[in-house]
Amino acid sequence: MGEVRFDANDVANIRFAISPLWETVASLRALADPGRHVVHLPWIKTARTAAQGRDLAARTAPLLGLTGRDGSLPAFLTPPPNCPLAEFEEELAIVLATPAARVRADLEATQPSSFARALAEDPERELPRLVDAVRGWWLAAIEPHWSRMRAVLEADISHRARQLAEDGLAALFDSLHPTLRWAGDRLVSTDPRSPEIELRGRGLPLTPSVYANRCVLLAGGAASSPVAIYPARAVGTLWEGRRTDVDGLARLLGRSRARLLGYTSSPSTTTQLAARTGLSLGAVSQHLAVLREAGLVTSSRYRREVNYTASDLGAALLDRA
C-alpha cells in the first residue's frame, strides 16, 4: 500500500500526458505474459512472429537481454513524459542522456545478463545499442499501430478532462482504477507495490496506457517528476474491426459522412480520416464542416493538429445505429 501526497502547487500541476516510449517498453510485458493481456492477443500473434525474424531478433537482443520474465525493465527506460504528447525520438534522447550512475543503480534491480553486465561496465558505449534496440522494436511492433493506439489514449484523456471539469478531482482519481482513491490531500493506492511519494511541487502527470493492466505509480528522481500510469478506457476496441458503413446513418447523412462520423468515435485528424476512408483531404474537410455545423462532431486543436471527435449527439446516433 502506498500514497502520493499533494500540496496546493501539486494539485495545480496535475496534467495528462501520452508516452509512446512507455507503450513500446510496456508492450514487452504483454508479449511475455499473454494470459494477463488477452485483449492484445491479435497484436501478440503478429508481434511474436516479427520478433522471431533474424534481423529484428539481432537488433532487439540488447533490449530483450534486459527484460525480466514478467516483462520488467530498468526504470531509466521509462522517463516521465514532459508534454501532453511526447515524440518517440525525443523520449529516446532522454534515455540516451541518462547519467552512468543512474544506469548502474537501475540495473541492480534487473535480472543479470551478459548485456546488463556490459551496460553496467560501460554505459557510454552500450547505451546507444540499447536505444537502437528500443527503436527497432518501436518500428516493427508499435509504430505501425500507433495512430490507432494514440486515438484510444486521446479519447481517454478527453473523457477524463471532461470528468475533471464536471465532477472534480476526487471523482477523477476514484475512477482511474479500483486500487486508487482520493483521501483529503493524498492519493492512496491499495497495491502493495506502490511507493510512498512526496510530490513537493513537482506535480503529477497522469498517463493512460493501452498495455497497463494495473495502475503504476513511479516515484521519479532528482531530475524527473513522479508519474501515474493507468489503464486507458476502451482498450477492447483497439484491435477489433470497425464497422463504419452503417446503412441507417448512410440513408440519413450520406455514405461518406456516415463513415466519417463512425471514425470520429475517437479523436482523428483530417489526414487520418482521409487515409481510413480513401477520400481526398478536401472532401474530408467539406464533410466535416457539414457534420460540425449539424452538431455531430467537435474539433480541438493541439499544436498544429486539429482533432475531430463525435459530439454527444453524434455518439448517440452511432450507438442507436
Automatic annotation (TrEMBL):
Keyword Nucleus among UniProt keywords = no
Ranges where the HTH arsR-type domain occurs: 248-319
Molecular function terms, GO-annotated:
DNA binding; DNA-binding transcription factor activity
Family annotation (InterPro entries): ArsR-like_HTH, HTH_ArsR_DNA-bd_dom, Metal_resp_trans_reg, WH-like_DNA-bd_sf, WH_DNA-bd_sf
Gene3D superfamilies, from UniProt? Winged helix-like DNA-binding domain superfamily/Winged helix DNA-binding domain
Entry keywords, A to Z: DNA-binding, Transcription, Transcription regulation
According to UniProt, the name of this protein is Winged helix-turn-helix transcriptional regulator
Organism, as annotated? Solihabitans fulvus
Q: What is the lineage of its organism?
A: Bacteria, Bacillati, Actinomycetota, Actinomycetes, Pseudonocardiales
